[in-house]
């Protein structure tokens, strides 16, 4: 899933700053919570799990992404959730997972970079 010129940034730092009222400690905590959510939720999104479990995990990850300003991930998670709750969840979800994993990885890298910058 290649970003398009009109794609939002992977991590909107202005949004993150608004969410944390500019508090660097709170920002670091929020990013760490996001990382923990990714670790906890990714296994729940694996093929073979019930579609409802996968949809719920995608929904939770969407909320976490919104909280930190990762709107691209939130959009992809929303699409995945919608597909999993649809008539043919496996067909659509399988196609979305490739792009989903890529956006999750890019978002996690951006969050880690932001955490490192805040610690420096």
Short summary of the structure?
The chain has 120 residues and is mainly α.
Could you describe the 3D structure shown?
Helix content is 74%, strand content 0%. It is an all-alpha fold. α1 (13-20) crosses α2 (24-41) and α4 (71-84) runs antiparallel to α5 (89-119). The chain contains five helices and no strands. Residues 1-5 have low confidence and may be disordered. The chain has one domain (13-119): HPT domain (Four Helix Bundle (Hemerythrin (Met), subunit A)), CATH 1.20.120. The longest helix is centred in the C-terminal third of the chain and has 31 residues, at 89-119.
How are the secondary structure elements laid out?
Elements: H1 13-20, H2 24-41, H3 51-68, H4 71-84, H5 89-119
State the main characteristics.
120 residues; mainly alpha; Four Helix Bundle (Hemerythrin (Met), subunit A); 5 helices; disordered N terminus
Largest sheet: none
H/E element sequence: HHHHH
What would you call the structural class? Answer: mainly alpha
Annotated CATH architecture: Up-down Bundle
Question: Roughly how many Å apart are the termini?
Answer: 32 Å
Average pLDDT metric: 88
Number of domains: 1
What is the CATH topology classification name? Four Helix Bundle (Hemerythrin (Met), subunit A)
Topology, number of strands: 0
Going by CATH, the homologous superfamily would be HPT domain
CATH class: Mainly Alpha
Radius of gyration: 14 Å
Shape: elongated
Give the low-pLDDT segments. 1-5
**Percentage of residues in strands:** under 5%
- Helix count equals 5
Q: Fraction of residues in helices?
A: over 70%
């Amino acid at each position: 899933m290649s970003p398009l010129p009109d794609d939002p940034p992977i991590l909107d730092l202005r949004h993150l700053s608004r969410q944390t009222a500019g508090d660097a400690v709170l920002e670091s905590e929020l990013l760490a919570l996001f990382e923990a959510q990714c670790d906890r939720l990714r296994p729940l999104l694996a093929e073979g799990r019930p579609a409802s479990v996968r949809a719920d995990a995608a929904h939770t990850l969407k909320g976490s992404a919104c909280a930190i300003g990762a709107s691209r991930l939130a959009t992809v998670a929303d699409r995945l959730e919608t597909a999993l709750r649809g008539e043919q969840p496996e067909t659509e979800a399988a196609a979305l997972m490739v792009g989903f994993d890529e956006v999750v990885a890019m978002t996690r890298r951006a969050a880690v970079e932001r955490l490192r910058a805040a610690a420096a």
